[in-house]
Amino acid sequence: MAGEKTLWISGQLAEKIRAHGAETYPHESCGALLGRDSEATDDNSAREVLALFPLVNRRDDSPRNRFSVTAEDVLDADRAAQKQGLEVIGWYHSHPDHPARPSQYDQDHAWPWYSYVIVSVQNGSPQEMTSWRLNDDRHAFSPEGIKIRHTATV
Amino acid sequence: MPVKVIIPTPLRVYAGKRASAEFNAGTVGEALKHLTTEYADLRKHLFTEDGRLRSFVNVYVNDEDIRYLAKENTATKDGDTISIIPSIAGGCCPL
Question: Is residue A64 part of a domain?
Answer without folding.
Answer: yes
